[in-house]
Amino acid sequence: MKNPMLEVQNLSVNIQGKIIIENISIGVSPGEVLAVLGPNGAGKSTLFSALTGERVPVKGQVLINQQPLSEISDNLRATQIGVLPQSSALSFAFSCYEVVSMGRIPWATGKDKDAEIIKQAMKQVDAWHLRDRIYTSLSGGEKQRIHLARVIAQITTDNQQVPRLLLLDEPTSALDPSHQHLTLQLARQLAENNTAVLVILHDFNLAARYADKIMVIKEGKQVVLGSPIEVLIPDLIKKVFDIDSQVISHPTYHVPVVLLG
User: Fold this and answer.
1) Which of 148, 192, 209, 220 has the most crowded CB, counting CB atoms within 10 A?
2) CB distance 226 to 214 below 8 Å
3) DSSP β-bridge partners for residue 257
């Protein structure tokens, strides 16, 4: 196992005097996909904002390659850490190609190389056909894919020895089932190319299919962290999400399949 690219140690976050996240500890290494699950209001987005440096914890720390997040250089943040928030506001009439090209701003790889990377990223998210469309004219799902392509373009490098980190906050929320799977297949592929991936999800079965580990949080506290087969069990799903379920094994992938109700 490689050293963690992302390490969270006893993290607690307060908002207006209220504890939203309490004593969260996780590690994600290149080659791994960690999915974070929890009911609405569990603190998932607050955790995400602490991982990206948007919120400062009152206790604990976030380490990137064993360095405190606050000490990470702007260049490393820009070229090795890709962040896709739950929503990305952009009101200017840029083409989709121009939006994705923003991901290459930190690099000095040249126009031709950048164009190659931008095209590849857009193809990976099934958005190359949107390249000349005005971003503001897109559907919610199309916008989500364009921003994912931008983030992928941002952390793409020919040097596979350089570890990268990809943080995704509900990247499938506006997508149809086909593109949900495409997005997480892409996250899985990036993990296999020296990237540590943390993704916040709501879908048990997407997490089971694509994640190596799942962390479940409720009321800001870590309930469990383990493999999908360890985590996705009816008793825990009932306890955390207050819904009855049955869990069977997928006939092809041999991962848990959660049947609700």
Assistant:
1) 148
2) yes
3) 248
